[in-house]
C-alpha cells in the first residue's frame, strides 16, 4: 500500500483558520507517519526599495502566523513551514524536488475552479508537477464516502513497453485505496473503453449489426481479462485481507472515457477521482493528455492526478544550451 513520506500543503495567503482541506492533509500525514510542510508562496514584490523594511516586517508577521497555523495541527515535530517568493506553481515544484516530497495537496483557487482551471496555477501543477497532486474543493467534505480509481486498460498490456503504464495503474489503485481506508469509503475502480473501428466495419462489411456486436463482445472480454489481471496484481501487492476489506467495486463501461468517467463520478456521488494525466504518446514533461483534460473539465469533485514513472517536469529539466 502506498505510504507517503513527505507531504506539501500549499497554503492560501489569507491565513484562515485550519480549513477542511488542511485538516485532511494533517490527518493523512498522521496516518502515514509522514512529514507535512506548509508552503506559502508570495509574488515577487514590485515596490521601491524605500519600503523594503516594511516588506520584511510583513514577511516576519506572515512567518509567525504560519507557525501558529502549523502548531494548531498538533503534529509535534513532523510539521514545518516554508515561505518562498516567485510564481506559485514553479516554487511548489522546486520545493517538491528540494524537500523530496511525494505528494502535493492544494485547495482549488476558485469555487468554480473547473471552469477556470486551464492556465491557472492548478493546471500548471497538474501538467508539470512530478509528484501526485491532490486538488481539493474549497468546501471540502470532512469525510469521503466514495473514491473512484480511473484506470487505463489500454495501457495494461504485458508488452515490455507498457510496463511503466502498468505501474501507473497500480499507483492509481494504491493511492485510491490508501485514501479509502482512512475514511472507510467505498472504492470504485472504473475503466471506460470504446471500439471506434466498429462503426467503420459496420459501414463497409455485410451483416453490420452482427459484426459490430461481435467486435464489442470481443473488446469487452479483452478488457475484462485486463481488469482482472490488473486487480490480481493489486491484490498480490496489498494482501488478501486488505483487498477483501477494501472490496473494490468494479465498473467496466463501454464508451469514450472523456464522457463516461465524469458521468459515472456524478452518478456514484464521487468525492474524489484518482487518475493519470499524461497522454498515451508519452511526451514526458510537456502535455497533459486530451482525454484527461476533458475529464477534468467535467468533474465536480476533488481529484488526485499522477504521472507515470520517468516523468521529468519541464520546470526541473536541464535547459538546452
TrEMBL record:
<keyword id="KW-0963">Cytoplasm</keyword>
<dbReference type="GO" id="GO:0005737">
    <property type="term" value="C:cytoplasm"/>
</dbReference>
<feature type="domain" description="UspA">
    <location>
        <begin position="5"/>
        <end position="136"/>
    </location>
</feature>
<comment type="function">
    <text>Required for resistance to DNA-damaging agents.</text>
</comment>
<protein>
    <submittedName>
        <fullName>Universal stress protein</fullName>
    </submittedName>
</protein>
<dbReference type="InterPro" id="IPR006015">
    <property type="entry name" value="Universal_stress_UspA"/>
</dbReference>
<feature type="domain" description="UspA">
    <location>
        <begin position="170"/>
        <end position="306"/>
    </location>
</feature>
<dbReference type="Pfam" id="PF00582">
    <property type="entry name" value="Usp"/>
</dbReference>
<dbReference type="InterPro" id="IPR006016">
    <property type="entry name" value="UspA"/>
</dbReference>
<comment type="similarity">
    <text>Belongs to the universal stress protein A family.</text>
</comment>
